Amino acid sequence: IKLQSPKKSISKRSRPTSSNSCATGRPRAAGHHTAQTMSKPMKSSLPTSSGTFQPLRHRSGTMRDRLHGYTKRTLGAGGSMNEAVALPPGESCAGWVAVHAIDFYNDVSTIWAVMAEDPYLNSFQAGEGFPSGVEYRWSEGTGRDATTVKVSAPVYIEKVLHWIAEQMNDETKFPDDDDEEEALRVFQTPQFAALCGQIFRRLFRVYGIVYSSFFGTLEALGMAPHLNTCFKHFMFFCTEFGLLPEREIEPLEVLVKPIRKQYYVGKQGQLSG
Predict the structure, then answer these.
(1) pTM (2 decimals)?
(2) Mean pLDDT over residues 80-105, rounded?
């Protein structure tokens, strides 16, 4: 991938007075999303009025739990980020992406939970709070009934995270893999690849909003190191498997460029070692 010089800087609006390839299908038009409804009950939820958040878990003994544990063990043993995102020998690329989609959703939701009940979010008007030069909109309904809604950045994040949770709680889309063979059959379909592509693009957009409009607040709360680590892990993984179109990356290019440089330096070290 040819890296280009940053064209934009990231705005830092803060609280007043107080930072291998798996196919994922083609993206839809930038910023246009379709909200979907599911029939199954939620197993993962966004913050409630009490500020709590319940992440989506990997059940012990399943393939998802095994793959999730591989990443934790690699980083816990002092392994590099490149090693942590690389596909483990003998494992399914599609399963590896599925597990990380869940883990990255948990990361982003946990970060957003810190902000979700803050009255500051109400200060954003529709169309405000997005990275410089872009505005993400949400589409509701399907077919001829579809309507595009202009929303604020905080509302956009809420819609994205609820939509992702609904997809992951639908066992026809993200099977709870007691039957590993059946789970892999679902994970290896073109439909699942396209769904994961949407999930990763939308998570990236949430990171873009957080860095553009809420970094100052998270930094004041001591959350900046955690945010930066989560985003670096996310970008290393997306770069490893080619999950993000270049046009999605451009609004955060000033942040992404040094991370991808670290990724390629580490990758070269792996190959030469």
Answers:
(1) 0.78
(2) 92
